[in-house]
Amino acid sequence: MSQDHHHQxxxxxxxxxxxxxxxxxxxxxxxxxxxxxxxxxxxxxxxRWQLAYPGEEVPILGGLLGSGWLPDFMSAxxxxxxxxxxxxxxxxxxxxxxxxxxLGVGAFGNYLVPLQxxxxxxxxxxxxxxxxxxxxxxxxxxxxxxxMPGGAANSGWTSYPPLSIxxxxxxxxxxxxxxxxxxxxxxxxxxxxxxxxxxxxxxLSFFKLPFFVWAQLVTSFILLLAxxxxxxxGVLQLMDRVAGTSFxxxxxxxxxxxxxxxxxxxxxxxWQHLFWFLAHPEVYVLILPAIGIVTEIVVNNTRKPLYGxxxxxxxxxxxxxxSFLVWAHHMFMTGMGETMSDFFQVTTMxxxxxxxxxxxxxxxxxxxxxxxxxxxxxxxVAFLPxxxxxxxxxxxxxxxxxxxxxHDTYYVIGHFHYVVAPGTLFALFAGIxxxxxxxxxxxxxxxxxxxxxxxxxxxxxxxxFPMLLQGISGLNRRMYDPTFYEHGASIQSLNVxxxxxxxxxxxxxxxFILNFFLSIKFGKKVGDNPWQATTLEWATPxxxxxxxxxSEPTVYHGPYEYSVPGRTExxxxxxxxx
Amino acid sequence: xxxxQYGIGLMxxxxxxxxxxxxxxxxxxxxxxxLFVGWGIFLAYTLIRFRARxxxxxxxxxxxxxxxxxxxxxxxxxxxxxxxxxxxxVWNSYKSDPPDEKEALxxxxxxxxxxxxxxxxxxxxxxxxxxxxxxSDFNPLGIDSKDPASEDDFYSLRNFNLPVGKPIIAEITSKxxxxxxxxxxxxxxxxxxxxxxxxxxxxxxETGEFEIICSQxxxxxHSTMGGKVHVQKPEDFKKxxxxxxxxxKKSTASL
Lengths: 578, 255
Fold this sequence. Notes:
heterodimer, A: mainly alpha, two-stranded antiparallel sheet, 18 helices, 63% helix, B: 255 residues, alpha+beta, Immunoglobulin-like, 5-stranded mixed β-sheet, 10 strands
């Protein structure tokens, strides 16, 4: 049943474009997401020019983009306020919804979950393809925003009304794009949940699943439960913009001293509640797959079993559950009462506990191991302190009293980027270097991988650590001219440092891009299990054929049987009877 | 009055309630630093001691020590202390102890794209009725001139004069989109949301001129939506107050 015995050669388009094979879809997701990540990063590198040299024309690009082929975008060759707001909103949207989530869940989840549970494919292969193509359409629609008069969305990735409802039509395009992206995530998450529950190989009980699969399961539940409120909110905002409703518009709005002709009676805070009800759990959608990847790689490279497997699983489930109870800590400055703010700062402190447990489990796993420092391991180990900085800097923001000072400053930017960029993205890089040989049959160059790692580690810290200092010094975020205020002008040198570090980080990524593509042809050829790993994805031929396994695997052991006493090899694969 | 010095580090605190906030921030960062450095040293030591090398083998058995559990419990205990011992009391005493209305100066702070209006109630301490339908370029706050309470009302644009040492109650709202009224030197931040009015209170300890910074993205002019708080000696404030024109005052002739 697990195999397709009468292979039928498919045409190129069916095999690589409109494929229903989870591995092809995973690679499609991965490549598309990497392209969007690079695009989102380019938007930021443009913004960094304005932040370092406010008001000056952008070299080279200013002439190219300023020639007017994008309406209302850098029309005078510099990053003006409207362009800056557009880039800010789109950088956030692209990085999160088109980059990191599709990479962590769409690419890694799709490619690895069926392999790690020993299944021939996803439970619903066609739904899987539909999920990718809806995502693709959502991405294209998002980008079309740049061609709208007035430019793409410019009200922040958070799109707070009434600002977003008064915004130019790029916002309408943004909302349509979001609805498509959310739909895609819902299709994908249902598929992952059913696959994990229904298609596990014989013998593979829940507590023998690799932690990565657990992380995907919790992530998918979060997506499934948190996205529908935002999808509804997105449709309501769309109605406010195009159908004259007032879900988020209160009575008595006045713009430029002219009373607006609206029905009124709505509430702009309602959007914030609906938005953050998704967008906080979304943080765990980003970080859980990352933790899953890091766990796999750390355990494999310490050559010993995971310390506290069940603790880690329960922490993951608890994180997922608690992530639904902290959303209003993004709204402490809206004027909420004490009972509400006390509740949300208590839940926020509680959610930090499982994160501490996760870090403790991973670091204690290292104790007593025999640690190999290959490229995936370097990225995975670096994830630990980076995620720790991200987590710790969440404390001053999660406590209401200190949030009065830090809210909406660069401290917030520093904090969440430490979680998402040197945190999650490093984990995703680790994953790419680790599973690349399974997908391609060749390894990426470790020499260039190490240069990519050290270059990224140094420059990314020079980008985000100074942002924490800017925040402590009171610099506000979302300011297109950081020198307008006296206190901002006094610390402008930090902005110059950050910008150069960001451009250096961009250059280092070119090494990764070259390594990624050139290794397809020139990488070192490897066997089926180059890292001497234990989990089921390494029990397939390389690259895995359609249907994955040559015969259905039976699972005898837990996922991390390394250095089992009395064996000559230091690993015992899950499907091998000892 | 000395000129404020800015640079890397917390902005000066010139409010009476800010001390608790700053104390929490310093405590927190000390704790974070301690945790991160201690933990980082342990990580570095582990990575070096257990690196793969000839003759070294991984241990199948895991660490049996209870130490990590104790460390976790200690972290949790310290978080409880931060929460219950520092953050909640500071925030709750700040939020739940409004100053006596008789003692305080009450103003309305109204945000719009891209400026702040400060509405003073005048000698009667009563704001004239406002209605968004009355808003025009000549009456940006929509104050109803028919309401007798409006007679001594006045407003200022981008400049917020207030007396030192006197509690201020500021009712924050907005006409169009969400702004945020931030005066970091007074440790004040409150979103200005249209349709909602939220009162905040603070007392300035020292005289001087401080920046008002819009702290919520509000459109194309967001980064220049500033203003100045002028904290004045009571006698200077009184002088300024008396000089202000009362635009809604009915001339005695028409009475």
